[in-house]
Amino acid sequence: MTRKHWVLALVVAVAAAGAVILLVPDRTEAPVTAPSTSALTGAAPAMRAQAIVYRTDQAVGGRFRVKITNTGDEEFEVLGLRLESGGFEPQPLTTDPVRYTPGERTDIVAPFGAARCGTDDTVAPAHVVMDVRVAGGEAQRLEVPLESILEAIPKLHERECDIARIAAAVDVGLASIEQVEAEGGPILEADITFRRLETDEPIVVSDVRGSVLYRIVGDGLPIELAANDAEAVLPIVISPARCDGHALGESKQPFVFPVHIEVGDADGIGYHIPIPTDQQDQLYEYLTTACGLVN
């Protein structure tokens, strides 16, 4: 089974299984707020917009989804949209039009810009700016309130600022990956490296975890970089967590390995170890061998 076919299997499985809304549940009883208009020649279409985040969006990063529902009696087309929030740098409008018949509800993938952290900018309430065309009419520029049930957009902003804070303090990487034979089969030995950057606060690494497909065990946790420590290394062992077809076909984040990092007195987060493409290829090749997927 080639890597291309394996990735294709993942994509097909994700499309078939759907996605899980992590931040915003669907609540049809929530009130619908009419969009405001700018330089319009006709009435704005009735709609509802909700912020949601899928597992695949978390894996890719830098994007979320806007679930739009046509709550009116006439068809309209969303030509493009973007998030408008004081907590994020603005992005261009999306460019893939989506048509909505009355009652239809469809997600649009939308990017969010870099988080504005440590400012007084208001994160919520947020809204989406969109270009909309009602059937038989001209394009209109709308500002549609974006529902943030369970504080979806503020939580997204908080997470992005936490990631930026950790990334500014310590450089994290995977290094020295080597396949070795063990009693139960081949394993990978590797190092997670931590290099101090723009902080003199203590840095504590208390946990590391694998994914659905890869088990990771750290040797010597927790580790701490004191104020005068420039770097630290955590030896790890990587082995298959699952080899069954269901896991191989439906894993949405096979190379997302969170390591729990605390900087100073701030709460720690599960920071994802950056895994470049060449290391992903190496991990995949190892899994095909260890799981017996190649002759």
Overall description:
Residues 1-34 have low confidence and may be disordered. The chain has helices at 3-17, 55-60, 152-169, 245-250, 277-290; strands at 36-38, 47-52, 63-70, 76-84, 98-100, 105-111, 126-134, 139-147, 170-182, 185-196, 203-208, 214-218, 223-225, 231-240, 258-263, 269-272. It contains five helices and 16 strands. Strand 9 and strand 10 (185-196) form a beta hairpin. The chain folds into two domains: 25-147, Sandwich (Immunoglobulin-like), CATH 2.60.40; 163-290, Immunoglobulin-like (Sandwich), CATH 2.60.40. By secondary structure, the chain is an alpha+beta fold.
Secondary structure: elements and pairs:
Blueprint: H1 3-17, E1 36-38, E2 47-52, H2 55-60, E3 63-70, E4 76-84, E5 98-100, E6 105-111, E7 126-134, E8 139-147, H3 152-169, E9 170-182, E10 185-196, E11 203-208, E12 214-218, E13 223-225, E14 231-240, H4 245-250, E15 258-263, E16 269-272, H5 277-290
Parallel strand pairs: 2-8
Antiparallel strand pairs: 1-8, 2-3, 3-6, 4-5, 4-7, 7-8, 9-10, 10-14, 11-13, 11-15, 12-14, 15-16
